[in-house]
From TrEMBL:
Transmembrane segments: none annotated. It comes from the Bacteria. It comes from Companilactobacillus nuruki. GO terms for biological process: DNA integration; DNA recombination. Residues 1-110 form the Tyr recombinase domain. This is Tyr recombinase domain-containing protein. GO terms for molecular function: DNA binding. Keywords: DNA recombination. Pfam families: Phage_integrase.
Length: 118
């Protein structure tokens, strides 16, 4: 994989290499990922074989969904999630993303009632 990246012009040894660069290895326009998402959704929804339609979600919405599911799965620590999404402070994960979902709320109630013997 590294060899293929070098052929394409990516400097895999540099800390200054963007994951999704523009042609000049600078940041993409903020709207570019949204345009990619719109293209994928339109292409999928225009296919007559697909009975269900994809709903539009922003890249930030995908991030929020990932973090929420990762927290709910209890397979990753908050620190691991923080590092995965690139937040500089774990309080961002705690304050914004660690809201209690319906599933987590039910698990809390079930755990408590089991503990107290209901």
């Amino acid at each position: 994989m590294r060899k293929e990246m070098l052929v394409l012009g990516y400097n895999t040894s540099s800390r200054n290499q963007w994951i999704f660069p523009n042609e000049s290895n600078h940041t993409l326009s903020l709207m570019k990922p949204n345009k990619w998402m719109d293209t994928v959704i339109s292409s999928y929804n225009d296919n007559e074989k697909n009975n269900t339609k994809l709903k539009r979600i922003t890249p930030h919405g995908m991030r929020h969904t990932f973090v929420t599911i990762a927290i709910e799965s209890k397979k990753l620590t908050l620190k691991q999630i923080q590092e995965q999404v690139g937040d500089s402070d774990i309080s961002v994960i705690m304050n914004i993303y660690a809201h209690v979902t319906k599933k987590a709320s039910k698990e809390t109630i079930d755990s408590f009632t089991s503990y107290v013997g209901f």
